[in-house]
């Protein structure tokens, strides 16, 4: 990684979003409640965003203390749309609850990219995702969730005019979707 990619503008405040509203059907149990070293994946994701510098962290999903999806069944974009009323304009970093190898340095690379682009994700990985939230992006997200076609993160990223970043360590972006994935990780 290049040294400059980790430079986050001083004083940049951002909102962190953890997507924890999936059905976990392939896992057979709630992925957010899986534990590593005595902490759930949900607690770990929230702490990771705070450690990366998030001023606020919002959890999307049907669980205590979280923001429930306004329109269930719309995947990550639906979760993002549901939390937007609680997100101030400015930088936002979104991550799924099921990426236990994700680290602060990787999130900071995404966040730094929003200084040059309206949104960023790593090539081949629609999540985690960083974006600069403003009225125009809010309108694009609303349009995606109301068009009835089942929005995708790729469609959202394209609508945001985002860029793809190279990823030197794709293992950091590995998610756990099924018991075999979890067994291989844990």
Task: Provide a concise account of the structure shown.
Helices cover 31% and strands 22% of the residues. The two termini are 26 Å apart.
Describe this structure in words.
It is a single chain. The protein is an alpha/beta fold and 186 residues long. The protein has helices at residues 41-51, 75-83, 104-113, 135-146, 153-160, 179-185, and strands at 14-19, 35-36, 39-40, 54-60, 90-96, 119-122, 125-133, 163-165. The strands form two sheets. A six-stranded mixed sheet has the order 4-1-5-7-6-8, with helices on both faces. Strands 2-3 form a two-stranded antiparallel sheet. α2 crosses α4 (135-146) and α4 runs antiparallel to α5 (153-160). The longest helix has 12 residues, at 135-146. The model is unreliable at 1-10 (pLDDT under 50).
Spatial order of strands in the largest sheet? 4-1-5-7-6-8
The largest pleated sheet is described as: 6 strands, mixed
Could you say what the CATH topology is called?
A: Spore Coat Polysaccharide Biosynthesis Protein SpsA, Chain A
Element pattern in H and E: EEEHEHEHEEHHEH
Class from helix and strand fractions: alpha/beta
What percent of the residues sit in helical stretches (DSSP H or I)? 25-40%
Protein name: Molybdenum cofactor guanylyltransferase
Domain MobA-like NTP transferase: 16-152
Pfam family, one: NTP_transf_3
Organism: Cognatilysobacter xinjiangensis
Task: List the keywords.
22% strand, 8 strands, alpha/beta, 186 residues, 6-stranded mixed sheet, 6 helices, Spore Coat Polysaccharide Biosynthesis Protein SpsA, Chain A, disordered N terminus
């Amino acid at each position: 990684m290049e040294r400059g990619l980790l430079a986050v503008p001083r004083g940049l405040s951002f909102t962190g979003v953890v997507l924890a509203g999936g059905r976990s059907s392939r896992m057979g149990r709630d992925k957010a409640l899986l534990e590593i070293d005595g902490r759930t994946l949900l607690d770990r994701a929230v702490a990771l965003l705070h450690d990366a510098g998030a001023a606020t962290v919002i959890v999307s999903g049907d669980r205590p203390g979280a923001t429930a999806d306004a329109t269930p069944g719309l995947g990550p974009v639906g979760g993002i749309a549901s939390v937007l009323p609680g997100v101030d304009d400015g930088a936002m970093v979104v991550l799924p609850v099921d990426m236990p190898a994700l680290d602060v340095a990787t999130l900071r690379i995404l966040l730094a990219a929003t200084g040059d682009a309206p949104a960023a994700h790593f090539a081949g990985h629609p999540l985690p995702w960083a974006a600069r939230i403003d009225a125009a992006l809010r309108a694009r997200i609303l349009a995606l969730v109301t068009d009835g076609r089942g929005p995708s993160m790729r469609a959202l990223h394209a609508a945001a005019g985002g860029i793809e970043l190279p990823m030197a360590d794709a293992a950091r972006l590995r998610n756990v979707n099924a018991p075999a994935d979890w067994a291989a990780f844990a």
